[in-house]
UniProtKB/TrEMBL annotation:
InterPro entries: NAD(P)-bd_dom_sf, Sc_DH/Rdtase_CS, SDR_fam. It catalyses: 3-hydroxypropanoate + NADP(+) = 3-oxopropanoate + NADPH + H(+); L-allo-threonine + NADP(+) = aminoacetone + CO2 + NADPH. This is NADP-dependent 3-hydroxy acid dehydrogenase YdfG. Gene3D superfamilies: NAD(P)-binding Rossmann-like Domain (3.40.50.720). It comes from Paenarthrobacter aurescens (Arthrobacter aurescens). Its EC number is 1.1.1.298, 1.1.1.381. Belongs to the short-chain dehydrogenases/reductases (SDR) family. Keywords: Oxidoreductase. NADP-dependent dehydrogenase with broad substrate specificity acting on 3-hydroxy acids. Catalyzes the NADP-dependent oxidation of L-allo-threonine to L-2-amino-3-keto-butyrate, which is spontaneously decarboxylated into aminoacetone. Also acts on D-threonine, L-serine, D-serine, D-3-hydroxyisobutyrate, L-3-hydroxyisobutyrate, D-glycerate and L-glycerate. Able to catalyze the reduction of the malonic semialdehyde to 3-hydroxypropionic acid. It holds the Pfam family adh_short. GO terms for molecular function: 3-hydroxypropionate dehydrogenase (NADP+) activity. Transmembrane segments: none annotated.
Amino acid sequence: MTMTYAGTTALITGASSGLGAEFAGQFAARGSNLVLVARRADRMEDLARDLRSRHGVTVTVLPMDLGRPGVGRELFDELSGRGITVDTLINNAGFATHGPLAEENPDTIAAEISLNVAALVDITRAFLPGLLASGKGALLNVASTAAFQPIPGMAVYGATKAFVLSFTEAVAHETKNSGLNVLALCPGATRTEFFEVLGGETAAVGKMQTSEQVVATALKALDRKDTPGSVVSGWLNRVTAGVAQRLPRAVTVAIAARAVQDW
């Protein structure tokens, strides 16, 4: 059954481009009002104007740096003050670093952990009671196929996404009788600005998908009566993730290292 989200509101982080913008478009097409959160206000304002025009939904734009302590409560209080109740939460904001850990900038990897892990948990905790009370939407956290094995050369990123996958599947079990659909989405390489921020496509593994394909996978999972705790986007990515879970750990680490290292 294809779910409609008419009359509900979806909060999407990292909504200025890529998967976040695609989620915004596809949820708006299903009738959901939107709250878009990211740092780049101009990108979100352009997207908001387009979605209001095409779908007749309400779109609220909140420029915000999410990598700060207490951001979940700050965001919740801001929306409560505006009279906005969130039914669906999509934690999409995040970024990666690439290189040997000994050569990484400590401030950059601290920001990576803050955004990919701490902010995601903080925002989830702030909005989860309301999501459970609503029962009309979903909680979706964007993990990655990087979550299924350690990745030398992207050690911090892989570990943050392993956390997101574990965290989300646990919350899905905790809330399984609530009516709220909880999903960890695990895309592989996706044609977005992700690799521009990373510095190139040398760390991309496998055939790239489009944002539209990845979001379609998520929505198909959310449409299911028995939404799984996690889903991998792309059949080859699903095979690779399954193999990684079955091979000896040392083997998967060695394979991952060869796949992403370019030094």
